[in-house]
Amino acid sequence: MAPAPYRVRRVSRDTHDTVTIELEPPHDRVPSGSAAGPRFAPGQFNMLYMFGLGEVPISISGDPAEPDALVHTVRAVGAVTRALRGLRRGAVVGVRGPYGSAWPVDEAAGHDVVIMAGGIGLAPLRPAIYHLLARRDRYGKVVLLYGARTPADLLYTRQLERWRGRFDAQIEVTVDAAPPGTWLGHVGVAGTLLPRAEFDASRAVALVCGPEVMMRFAIADLRHRGLAPEQIYLSMERNMRCAIGLCGHCQFGPTFVCKDGPVFRYDRLAPFLGVREF
Ligand SMILES: Cc1cc2nc3c(=O)[nH]c(=O)nc-3n(C[C@H](O)[C@H](O)[C@H](O)COP(=O)(O)OP(=O)(O)OC[C@H]3O[C@@H](n4cnc5c(N)ncnc54)[C@H](O)[C@@H]3O)c2cc1C
Ligand code: FES
Question: Are 90 and 5 in contact (CB under 8 A)?
Fold first, then answer.
């Protein structure tokens, strides 16, 4: 599948190294009266292509109910993501997708939902949060436990405040460290928020995304709290090339992260998590 050219509609700066980019297809590609962007499920990703530089997988971070804006949040770590961070309104980006598996938001209906996010890991979880909050009466308790390195690294801060102001979801935020006098909130890794989270472990589903070390600790903490492996879902953000199960770049055993993942149920992934190459 060749990348389709999308135009940058808006870029907003989240932190010193992270931006949120809103894309729209060129107008001549959209039949009048139809939504501009492709439909996607929470947790899916697109391959974003910077002409002359390369292509990277980036999760869709927007609201699945608003597909006319294709939204991605990008942290600049290397050549392609740095170029994405530097995009301005009107620039053109190649887009392939959406690809991959989704967070189990429909299966979670009737359950408490605990979301644990670390750093940029909040981006792939945001569409799931939009989905849950838009159908709030279908779920039990909804809890978000979000950790970042410092207060300056927190994503979507205004939106976190708005979600907190709804009073129908527990939103807890923590940072690993904060310069003295800059932060009145919790300090510690995301797992240290778990004891204050109000949910029933016997009927909870957990959605976890963040750096791999954070996810390992989060799983241990959730297991300690009483969740079974089948109640925990993770998104594995491994390097990719084709994104459609052809090149083997993301393969481990019989599994391809690009098409069987990135969202996996923990019991299906557990045998591989200790494997060095994985
Ligand atoms: C399914 C999926 C969804 C993703 N969603 C997002 C997202 O929403 N926002 C976002 O900013 N990034 C996301 N990523 C990570 C993003 O794809 C990488 O940061 C990007 O490929 C780096 O490319 P680069 O050319 O900028 O840097 P490179 O030069 O390729 O890499 C720079 C550094 O980042 C490390 N790195 C590269 N890829 C990854 C990765 N996947 N995970 C951890 N470290 C990596 C490299 O080892 C290297 O140290 C996602 C990855 C996957 C697989
Ligand atoms: S990226 Fe090519 S098989 Fe998954």
Answer: no
pLDDT tens digits, residue range 162-220? 999 998 999 999 999 998 888 999 999 999 999 999 999 999 999 999 998 999 999 99
Nearest to 59 by CA among 41, 72, 69: 72
Atom of ligand 2 nearest to the CA of 242: 2
3-state secondary structure of 29: helix
Euclidean distance between CA atoms 199 and 236, whole angstroms: 25
Predicted structure pTM score? 0.93
- Tell me which H or E stretch contains 147: strand 142-148
List alpha helices for the chain, DSSP H. 79-85, 122-134, 157-165, 212-225, 257-260, 266-273
Residue 239 alpha carbon to ligand 2 centre in Å: 9
Give the pLDDT confidence score for residue 254 in this predicted structure: 83
User: Over 50: is that where the pLDDT of 277 sits?
Assistant: no
pLDDT of residue 36: 56
Quick one: how far is CA 66 from the chain centroid? 17
**Cα distance between residue 33 and residue 42, in whole Å:** 24
- In tens, the pLDDT along 237-246 reads 877 888 889 8
Contact 139, 113 (CB under 8 A): yes
Ligand 1 environment, Cβ below 6 A: 45, 54, 56-59, 73-75, 77-81, 120, 123-124, 237-240, 262
pLDDT-based confidence at residue 250 (cuts at 50, 70, 90): confident
Protein residue closest via CA to atom 34 of ligand 1: 77
